[in-house]
Design goal:
Blueprint: H1 2-12, H2 37-41, H3 65-72, H4 76-110, H5 119-148, H6 151-185, E1 189-191, E2 198-200, H7 208-219, H8 222-240, H9 251-304
Antiparallel strand pairs: 1-2
Helix pairs in contact: 4-8, 5-6
């Protein structure tokens, strides 16, 4: 349904359902709040990581190629202002990607070698532990027989102990050989510096073709492709905005400065108005007081004459 709606928007425009002669204020414009700004500037990151661990969910705003054309037709200052916002958003996503790579490398360092779980190695280790315990018990027995003067029995026990030690030495050689074989067959993992995924590293030329296919499949994955696209777009924007200062294009900051200057003028006017009112009231009170004194003086003069 969304794909069909997007196709209709591309062919007929986002305002295809508008009634002819309808007020233009009701039509969708590129700078409306329900239009995706990231899509206008390049691509929307919500479309990059679908069904992955970094899935941002569906974008709640409108994606419309005609509105993108309207945006690209605007003056450079307007586009630059939005490109700065887009750059900051992509840099935040890139930081998340770098954290993902760092966590993957930490997990890989803590991961035990794969050959340690081999059942044959575990069996050999257990057998050597049992033989070493028997050797220790025979050594105590030899000391006891020597103290009792039973030389013949002590020599027979010593020969049995030497036989066990030979078995232990043989098992150690077998275990060493087994470990070497498993390490040669094991394929070490490395962390992808782009997306944090694990890649099998194999220098064996016999499997070079198979490894090439595996690497190609990894690079075609949504996570790797998404973070690669973000990295390339950041480099493109940084080159495009080189030498420009964001504050020179930030309309909100200029509006704020104008608003602060306006408030300052209003405060000065208020102060001047209040001072004028106070002076006027003082003059009126003084005039009334002088008039009252003059009337009282006249009344006294009439009584006198």
């Amino acid at each position: 349904m969304d794909a069909q709606r997007a196709l209709l928007d591309q062919l007929m425009g986002i305002n295809r359902n508008a009634i002819q002669g309808e007020d233009e204020d009701n039509t969708v414009k590129w700078n409306d709040s329900n239009v995706c700004v990231w899509y206008l500037c390049g691509f929307c990151p919500h479309d990059l990581f679908t069904n992955t661990k970094e899935d941002l969910g569906p974008c709640p705003r409108v994606h419309s190629p005609p509105l993108r054309e309207d945006f690209l037709a605007k003056d450079e200052d307007t586009r630059t202002r939005y490109y700065f916002k887009y750059l900051h958003y992509l840099q935040g996503l890139q930081a998340r990607g770098k954290q993902r790579v760092s966590r993957a490398k930490d997990r890989l360092k803590l991961q035990a070698p794969s050959h340690l779980g081999d059942p044959e190695l575990r069996r050999q280790t257990k057998e050597m532990d049992d033989l070493q315990m028997r050797c220790k018990s025979l050594e105590k027995k030899i000391e006891e027989l020597g103290e009792k003067g039973q030389v013949q029995e002590a020599q027979e026990t010593l020969q049995e102990q030497e036989s066990l030690k030979a078995k232990i030495s043989n098992l150690k050689e077998q275990q060493k050989l087994r470990t070497t074989q498993l390490e040669a067959r094991a394929k070490p993992l490395i962390v992808c510096d782009v997306c944090g995924g694990l890649i099998i590293e194999d220098s064996n030329t016999k499997n070079a073709k198979h490894d090439s296919r595996r690497a190609t499949a990894h690079k075609a994955g949504r996570l790797h492709e998404g973070f690669s696209q973000i990295t390339m777009k950041i480099a493109e924007l940084e080159e495009q905005l080189k030498g420009k200062r964001e504050e020179d294009y930030d309309r909100s900051s200029s509006r704020g400065r104008r608003r602060r200057r306006s408030r300052s003028r209003d405060r000065r006017k208020d102060r001047d108005g209040r001072s004028y009112d106070r002076r006027r009231d003082s003059r009126e009170r003084r005039s009334r007081r002088e008039s009252h004194d003059s009337d009282r003086h006249k009344r006294r003069e009439r009584r006198y004459y």
